[in-house]
Design goal:
By secondary structure, this protein is α/β, with parallel strands linked by helices. It has helices at about 25-35, 60-65, 80-90, 100-115, 125-135, 165-175, 200-210, 225-235, 240-250, 275-290, 300-315, 315-335, 355, 365-380, 390, 415-430; strands at about 50, 95-100, 120, 140, 185, 215-220, 255-260, 270-275, 350-355, 380, 385, 405, 440, 455. The protein has 2 domains: about 25-55 and about 315-455, Aspartate Aminotransferase, domain 1 (Alpha-Beta Complex), CATH 3.90.1150; about 60-315, Type I PLP-dependent aspartate aminotransferase-like (Major domain) (Aspartate Aminotransferase, domain 2, 3-Layer(aba) Sandwich). A 5-stranded mixed sheet has the order 2-8-7-6-5, with helices on both faces. The chain has a 3-stranded antiparallel sheet with strand order 9-12-11. A two-stranded parallel ribbon has the order 1-10. The longest helix is centred in the last third of the chain and has 20 residues, at about 315-335. The radius of gyration is 21 Å and the shape is globular. Bound molecules: ligand PLI. Ligand PLI binds near residues 102, 190, 219 and 221. The site of ligand PLI has 15 residues, from helix 4 and helix 5.
Length: about 450
């Protein structure tokens, strides 16, 4: 048997942006200046930026060409008409509410649907989605499968909802007279490591949603990656295109909220798409107050056009296979060298398991935060903490995941870039005992990970 031929990216590079690696001394100084929080680093000091896949995609020549066709009319932009048509074709929803990004959509949806004291079942949580549910007076409830927070569990669909937990919550809510305004299901659950749900699970959740007359809204921010995993992993979908799977998933939902900054290959943008005309009317009224008119939602006409074209490009089977393949290849290299990661590798990122990478740092000394800072100082690679700093909420006890996310922007880095990332992390793993824990010296009330400040424990 010959060596497996790895296909190169299904695109070539037309425009470049120079990057540079500053000295080790300068990096150590930069991370101290940033209070050991990678969100506070200056982008110029970063060599390879794996902070996020959000808004960091490289747009295609087709998208840039579309930017020149921006219809900047305040009302009724033709780019919005195009966007609506594309969303109806790809996702299958008749009504679209544009927003400036995902959290704008989450804000409008939460305000439109949630009343004080309502319960919202979620498969784990995403930071901004949960924050908006709670700001609207709702109570977040976790109905994810137990495997979601087990970094070593090899289940293929760790993004599934535990239907028993969901049913129990619905029955409890009925008994206590509490309303459940909708079931919230995230595709490729970010905080679990980018883990997908299966169509089979989605169908069971839909059956429950129908039986109890509770709408189902999907966070479809990374739906294409979820659809790709279904194609590769779920029985019966190997020969179905990703585009068809996306449409099938949406056929089981009442609507979606989307941060178009991920799957949809744009630097800014988001939307809600849905079936219910009455709910749409309500959201349309709200969007005018919080985002902008219902035909631009805080975006320029050119942004709407780039988003419409990105949505058309994102379901290309060759593109998505390469995108997820790049993430998997980085994960494989790290895993082969013994670096502890979350498996199976998710769709958008490789997650390092900080509890095993730096076991000498107790959770109260923020192991994932410390590891993200150490990776930057070692290599100039920027990553993100996804552990107790991002996950702990108020006084709630927290004993869940302690991860560092190496997030791969779409169509931006080559195999050489990712080889450098792997080599640097493998080198750091060999001297991991030298990494020190941190002390938190400042934290904002909500979404503290963005701005929290730390000092090294000497
Ligand atoms: O960053 P926004 O406001 O466009 O989107 C918010 C948002 C909603 N849902 C999910 C699953 C997300 O991952 C998400 C944003 N994620 C960011 C910024 C990330 O770095 O993962």
């Amino acid at each position: 048997m010959g060596k497996k031929i790895i296909l190169p990216p299904p695109f070539k590079i037309k425009s470049i942006e120079p990057i540079r690696l500053i000295s080790h001394e300068a990096r150590k100084h930069a991370i101290q200046e940033a209070w050991f929080n990678t969100f506070e680093l200056q982008s110029e000091d970063v060599f390879i930026d794996l902070l996020t896949d959000s808004g960091t995609s490289a747009m295609s020549d087709n998208q840039w060409a579309g930017m020149m066709l921006g219809d900047e009319a305040y009302a009724g932009s033709k780019n919005f008409t195009h966007l609506k048509e594309v969303i109806a074709e790809v996702y299958g929803f008749p009504y679209t509410v544009p927003t400036h990004q995902g959290r704008g959509a989450e804000h409008i949806m939460s305000k439109a649907l949630i009343g004080k004291g309502d319960w919202i079942p979620n498969n784990l949580y995403f930071t901004t989605r949960r924050a908006h549910q709670e700001l609207a007076g709702g109570v977040w409830h976790d109905v994810s499968v137990a495997q979601a927070i087990d970094p070593r569990n090899s289940s293929l669909f760790k993004g599934n909802i535990d239907t028993k937990k969901l049913l129990a919550l619905i029955l409890k809510a009925k008994k206590e007279g509490v309303k459940i305004p909708y079931i919230s299901m995230e595709a490729c659950v970010n905080m679990a490591g980018g883990q997908p749900f299966s169509i089979k699970n989605l169908q069971s959740v839909r059956a429950i949603s129908k039986k109890y007359n509770i709408p189902l809204y999907i966070d479809a921010t990374r739906l294409v990656e979820n659809a790709y995993f279904i194609q590769q992993r779920e029985k019966g979908y190997r020969c179905t295109s990703v585009k068809k799977i996306v449409r099938k998933i949406c056929s089981f939902a009442d609507g979606v909220t989307v941060s178009a900054k991920k799957d949809a290959l744009v630097n800014i943008g988001g939307f809600i798409a849905l079936r219910d005309k009455k709910v749409f009317q309500k959201m349309r009224e709200l969007v005018v107050i919080w985002e902008g008119l219902h035909t631009y939602g805080g975006l320029a006409g050119r942004d709407l056009e780039a988003m419409a074209r990105g949505i058309q490009e994102m379901t290309d089977d060759d593109y998505i296979a390469h995108r997820v393949g790049q993430v998997e290849a980085l994960g494989e290299r790290l895993e082969k060298s013994g670096v502890p990661i979350v498996t199976p590798v998710g769709g958008h990122a490789v997650f390092l398991d900080a509890k095993r990478f730096v076991p000498h740092i107790p959770q109260k000394a923020f192991p994932a935060q410390a590891l993200a800072a150490a990776i930057y100082a070692e290599s100039g690679v920027r990553s993100m903490e996804r552990g107790i700093v991002s996950g702990q909420h108020g006084d709630e006890p927290y004993d869940g995941l302690e991860l560092v996310r190496l997030t791969i922007p779409r169509r931006v880095y080559t195999r050489e870039h990712l080889d450098y990332v792997a080599d640097s992390i493998i080198a750091l793993y060999k001297k991991r005992r030298a990494i020190r824990g941190l002390k938190m010296i400042y934290a904002p009330q909500t979404l503290r990970f963005f701005q929290a400040r730390f000092k090294e424990i000497l």
